Amino acid sequence: MQQATARFSNIDGDLLSKVSNLGPSELLLLAGYCAGLAENNSIAATTSVATNLVTDNAIKVLVLYASQTGNAETIAKSIGDDLDSKGYFADVESTLDVKLSSIKNYSLILIIASTHGEGEPPDDAIDFHEAIFSKKAPALHGAKHAVLGLGDSTYEFFCQTAKEFDEVLIKLGSSPLVDRVDCDIDFEVDAKNWSLKVLEALETWQPAVVTADPNPVNVLQFPHTKDKPFSATLSGIQKITAPGSIKNTYHLEVDLSGSGISYQPGDSIGVWAENDQDLVEEVLSELDILGSTEVQFKGEKYSIEYLLLHKLEMTLLNKGLIKEIALSSNSQRLNQIADTEYSSYINNHQLLDILKLAKSPLSAQQLADVLKPLKPRLYSISSSLDENPDEVHITLNHVESENDDGIRYGQASHFLTHNINVGDKINLYVDQNNNFRLPSPEKPIIMVGPGTGIAPFRAFLQQRSLQEAKGQSWLFFGNPNFNSDFLYQTELQKYVKSGVLSQIDLAFSRDQKSKIYVQDRLLSKGREVWQWLEQGAYFYVCGDMSRMAKEVENTLLEIIKLHGKRDHEEAKDYLKQLKKQSRYQRDVY
Ligand SMILES: Cc1cc2nc3c(=O)[nH]c(=O)nc-3n(C[C@H](O)[C@H](O)[C@H](O)COP(=O)(O)O)c2cc1C
């Protein structure tokens, strides 16, 4: 310090001694401040000193996101901006693009990961996930990390992918900067708090590097929020499967006038639906509770009936709920269900069923405490806004299942198709899906959308028709029977006639002895599918995740192997490249 002060002969000695008593973070703050002053006064030399300081001291942060429908990506980008504005060097990358070996070059790794399937990583993270668990993963001694999980606690494997990333990073030698947070479906507040915690911890881990005029930390912003839904009006509803069908599929048209809402083909609509009045009454009577009984919820008083109708989850079960009710009612049977039968049990049972099994009834307050907050249900939008200004269309199945005690309905599908009429209100918002987008109009597209999986492709075709798109388009559609289940038959035939749809292949599974599905049609057209892919086609899949989407992916790999003359690993690599180029996109549920 003595040597350095000698060079400041024209600076007041008092000032220098005050400066030398400052702590590291204050010094950096001052350096940034001086750099700002210098910049204003066009003193280039001083500015460059400050810039070096920032470069030398900044912590390199990797913000990695594993996202299927864009939530984790949005959060990652927002945190990346916050870090940049605080003077850190943040690289925001998708797990699809990041090189595994490069992660060791960062002193801090932030991972924001959602979970999909049954506790599986999002599509774009499958390879990275596999690689980081392999011998190829680099050692990360001395590094720090923080993981934010996005999930849905009604799934058995809640935030599984985030948990696994957290574990493996620790195994590789990294230590947590802050504890992992597992966010439920209403993730915004928890995600924001986690990002603030990360920023706070960073400041004490190593002095924060402050630029001359740091921007305030961004607050995570989601334009069409769940919290501020629009009260839209149901303008039309039509059952589009014919009598005799084993499915009850509906087409809904909803008026968005005055909302200012806009959406793109590929987006989903989030619907806040009320619980069914009959179900609420059955639950109350099962517990012998009066609907008017007052209970506390989030610091406010409500009648239990109001809460059950509008605020609490009554149709989706989760393990924690079954366990809690088992504990409070001392039920062995419920414990057994949670431990060994959970996955199959939740398919056709709801809250009412576990209350029937509970040995001792819950009080109204216990019930309010034990249930999760109601969550919105997402539906892939089946219209193009350009073709239908101020409208959104939804294509959905009325979900219905049966058990020994009766019939159980899907929460929102029952509300939308049985509990409201044309003219009634629906609280909704747009859930953007930037990972399911049409390419430019000259590109060829292949769409695989059996059942209600047709929804986004109806929107795609409407859009392409308006665009007078030159690119070829090919639809694979399937359902049980031609006579009753050919959804949007007239429209699709019109598109075939006009050339908007270049090809259509249909798989009506039950119209012949042996079942035929879309993946069978794909395989039989394998050579042509391969040619389309080689000509740059974009391949889309929408619909059932557990069987259809998996089968379609396996078939696609078969086609690549067979017609592209590749072995299994090479075929997987080809598919990976398609994903990287956004030419393999899925909206599966
Ligand atoms: C088809 C599907 C399967 C899902 N599976 C799980 C799961 O097994 N565990 C979980 O915690 N969340 C699960 N979720 C919830 C998502 O992780 C959650 O919606 C998350 O916010 C999505 O983030 P993303 O948009 O970044 O992908 C699933 C969601 C969908 C649509």
Features:
589 residues, alpha/beta, Rossmann fold, Elongation Factor Tu (Ef-tu), domain 3, 5 domains, six-stranded parallel sheet, six-stranded antiparallel sheet, 22 helices, 20% strand, binds flavin mononucleotide, sulfite reductase (NADPH) activity, EC 1.8.1.2
Q: What do you see in this structure?
A:
The protein has 589 residues and is an alpha/beta fold. It has five domains: 2-55, no CATH class; 58-205, Rossmann fold; 230-273 and 376-431, Translation factors (Elongation Factor Tu (Ef-tu), domain 3, Beta Barrel); 277-370, NADPH-cytochrome p450 Reductase, Chain A, domain 3 (Up-down Bundle); 445-588, Rossmann fold (3-Layer(aba) Sandwich). Helix content is 41%, strand content 20%. It is built from 22 helices and 21 strands. The strands form five sheets. Strands 1, 2, 3, 4, 5 and 6 form a six-stranded parallel β-sheet that branches. It is globular, with a radius of gyration of 28 Å. The structure holds flavin mononucleotide. Residues 67-72, 114-119, 122, 150-152, 155, 157-160, 185, 187, 545, 588-589 line the site of flavin mononucleotide.
Summarize the SSE layout with pairings.
Layout: H1 2-6, H2 13-20, H3 24-40, H4 44-57, E1 60-66, H5 71-85, E2 89-94, E3 108-114, H6 126-132, E4 144-150, H7 160-171, E5 175-176, E6 181-183, H8 188-205, E7 230-239, E8 249-255, E9 268-272, H9 277-287, E10 294-297, E11 300-303, H10 304-310, H11 319-329, H12 332-348, H13 351-357, H14 364-370, E12 377-380, E13 391-397, E14 400-403, E15 406-409, H15 411-419, E16 425-431, E17 445-448, H16 455-467, E18 473-479, H17 482-485, H18 489-498, E19 503-508, H19 518-524, H20 526-534, E20 538-543, H21 545-564, H22 568-580, E21 584-588
The structure holds flavin mononucleotide.
Flavin mononucleotide binds next to helix 5.
Keywords: Amino-acid biosynthesis, Cysteine biosynthesis, Electron transport, FAD, Flavoprotein, FMN, NADP, Oxidoreductase, Transport
Binding site for NADP(+): 509-510, 515-519
Domain Flavodoxin-like: 61-210
